[in-house]
Structures are given as C-alpha cells and as structure tokens.
Amino acid sequence: MTPAADGDPASWDAAWDARWAGTLPIGHLLRSAHPDRWVRFHGLPDSKRYADTEEEYAILLGRQHLLLDELSAPPELLVITCEWSGESAALRREADLERVAPGAYWRTVLEDEAEEDPEFRTYTHLYVGT
pTM to 2 decimals? Predict the structure, then answer.
C-alpha cells in the first residue's frame, strides 16, 4: 500500500503500520526495532552533522539529491520531515523547511511517554510530502 502525499493521515498510518509494525516513526526507535532495515546516510564528509559554509551546503544538497534520485523508484517516494516542540499541538512549520520540503501534517508523537513532567516533554510533529 502506497498512500499519496495528498492522502489522508489514516492512509499514512495504515501504510506505516503495514511496513513498520508497531514502531513509532522516530529514528532511534526504528534503528533499535528494525536493525535489518535501518540505514543512515551521512550528508557531509567525516560524518559531520551540520554545514558551516556554502561549500558544505552544496555538498549536502548534492548528496541529498543523489540519494533522492536513487530512492525515487516506483511506487511513489514519500518524505517524512519533522519539527519538535514542547507542545502537543503541531505548530506552524519553519518557512525554510516548508519551502524545501512541503508537506501535509500527519501526526504528533510524544517522544517519552514515561516523562511525567510536562516541562520536559518533547513532541515530534510529522509531515508527509513528496
């Protein structure tokens, strides 16, 4: 089952559950629950996490385009992006993220359900796009 990016959140939930069986769409949880299907791509040389220069941004963008070109075989490739906040309601996305990765709101996940203090809760707001 491959839901369209303009589909409804229920279809995305069904597709997610069919592939990832009860695991929340959170990177470190996927890595632990499905190590046979987990892969991480490094965007910069020497596993550097964040670009500091225009040259590094160009490297990062080039690698991301190459990766997306390789992955975009049929059926449709859906991209999940996220934003984090201390609020359970999804907030307006950052303009730069919306510009480069437009997406429709999918769902919000509470990172640590055992956290009792609301001040320390972190919510991940997920968006789906193509």
Answer: 0.74
Quote the CA–CA distance of 85 and 119 in Å, as a whole number: 11
Q: In residues, how long is the chain?
A: 130
Residue-wise pLDDT tens digits, 62-88: 998 888 788 766 566 778 888 888 888
Question: Distance (Å, rounded) from C-alpha 2 to C-alpha 25?
Answer: 16
DSSP 34-96: -TTT------SGGG--S--SHHHHHHHHHHHHHHHHHH--SS---EEEEEEESSSSPPPPPHH
pLDDT digits over 10-58, tens only? 888 888 899 888 899 988 888 999 999 888 888 898 989 889 999 999 9
